[in-house]
Please model this.
Amino acid sequence: MNKRVSVRRYIVKHKHLTFLLPGFLGLIIFYFLPFFITLRFSLSDTAGKVFAGLKQYKELINSSAFRLAAGHSTIMALGGCVLLIPISLYLAFQVNKMERFRKLCQSLMLLPMVIPSAVVVVFLQAVLPYRILYEKSMEVLMAVFLWKYIGYHTLILSESLKRVPAELIEAAEVEGAGRVRIFVNIILPFLIPAVVFSVLMITANSFRLYREAYLLYGPHPGEDVYMISHYINNAVQNLNYPKMSAAAVLTEGIVFASLLILIYVEKKISEGLEG
Amino acid sequence: MKKKKHYPGLIPGITAAAAVIPILCILLFSWFPEEQILLLKEAASRNDPAGMAAVLTDLTKLTAEQYRNILIASPDYLFRFWNSVKLVLPITVLQMIISVSVSYGIMLCRKRTGDVLLLLYLLLMLTPVQAAVVPNYFAIKRLHLLGTDFAIWLPGIFSPFPVYLLTKTMRKIPKEVIEAARTDGAGQWKVLTRIVIPQSKGPIIALGLLVLAEYWNMVELPLIMYTNPSDYPLSVYLSRIREDAFGLSFAASVIYLIPILLLVIYAMDDLKEGISVSSL
Model:
C-alpha cells in the first residue's frame, strides 16, 4: 500500500517528465539504441560477426580514401568558418549602419538558405562552363556554401553587435582609443557567444554540402570533393556495415570532441570576462 | 579637405543582389523554350558571357512550353511532387509538436538536469547528417521498414534538431510570468498553451520553416532508406530528369521551389526574429 502511494506521489511530483516522454522514446528507438548497434558493428570484423577490437578503425585510418575524405570534410568546415565569419562580420557592421532598406537587404540575404540543393544544381549546370564546374569543384562548393549561409550568419552577428552599449564605444572614442582597440577590447567580448554559435552551425552545415556535391558529381566524384559523407554513403550502398559504422562513429567522435573543446573554451573565456 | 562619402548600404546591397540573382534567373529560365536553354548552356561552356547575355535578352522567345510539358505531358512529376509533400508535412508538424513538448519538459526540469539535457541536445543538433543516418538505418532495418515511407517518416519525426534552440528561447520567458500563472491555479498544460507557446511563437515558426526546408531538401535519408531509385522524392529525382530533358528542369525547379519560397517570404519577420532570438 505504502509503496503505491509513494509511486503515485512520485508521478505527481515529476509530472513534467511526461512532456519529455514522447521525444525521449523516439530518440532512444531511432538514435540511441541503434547507435549501440553501430558501435558494435564498428568493433567487429568485416563479416560483422566476430569481435575484432579496433581493427576497423585501424583500417580506416590507414585507408587513403578515408584520409582523403576526412581531409576534404575538414577543409569544408574550417574553410567555411574562415570565410563566412569575417565576411558576415563585415556585412553585419555595414548592415547595422544602414538607414534605409536594411530589413529588405537582410530578408533577401536569408532566402538562399531555403533553396533546395537540386535547384541550385540545375542553375549551376546551366550557367557555369564545364571547365569551372568539373575542374574547380571545391571552389564551386565553397561558393555555394557562402551563398547559402552568409545571410544567416550576418543576421546572427548583427543582432549580437546591437547588444554592445553605444555609450561604452563613445566613451572609448572620447578617450582616444583607436578602432582596433575598440574592436578588440569592447566589441569582441560581446561577440564571442555569437561567433562560437556560428562556428558550431557552420561545422554542422558543412556536412550538408554533400547534397550539392552528390547531385552535381554523383556518388563517386573526382578526388577534389570526395567527402566523409560520400565514404559513408558508398559503404552503405555496398552493405559494408562494419566500415560504415566505424566511419560514422569516428566522424561523430572527432566532431563532438572538437566542438566540446570549443564550448568549454568559450565558457572559460566568458567566465574570465565576467570575473 | 574633401570628406569621403560613405555608402554603408553598398556592400550589403550587392550581397543581397547576389543572393537573389540565381533565384530570379531560375524563375526567368523557366519561361524559355528548351532550345534556348541549350543555347545558353552552350554559350556558358564556351565561356562566352556576351553569347549568354544575347540568349537571355531575347525576350521574344518567352513561352510557357516548359510548364506545359512538365504539368501535362509528364504526370510522373506531379505525382512525385505530392509524394514529397506527403513525406515532408507529417515530419514537420509532428517533429515540431514533439520538440515543443520536450523543450517545455526540459524547461521545467531543475537547472542542473536541464543544463545536462541541453548539452546533449546541442550535440545531437550538431551531429553530421550522414553520421546520424547510420543509426537510423540500423533501426529501420531491424523494424523491417527499409524501402517504405516509414523509413523517412520515423527518423524525421523524432529528429532532435529543434529542441536545443527551442529550449534556449523558452528559458528566456521571465520566471515571474510563469510563477504568477501557477499561483493563479494554471496547470502545466495551461502554462504551455497560454504562456509558453504564445511567448515563443516567432522561434517556433522559424524552426518549423527551417525543418520544412531541411526535409524538402533531404538527400541523405532517401538515398540510404529507399532501395528502389524510382521511390526517390523530388529532392533527389530532380537531378535525374535533367539528364534526358535538361530544358524542362527549370520549370520543374520552379514548381519545386515555389512552395517553400512563398512560405519563407510570408513568414520572413518571424524567421528573422526566431533566428536572432534562438541564437543569442
Summary: Chain A has two domains: 2-42, 64-274.
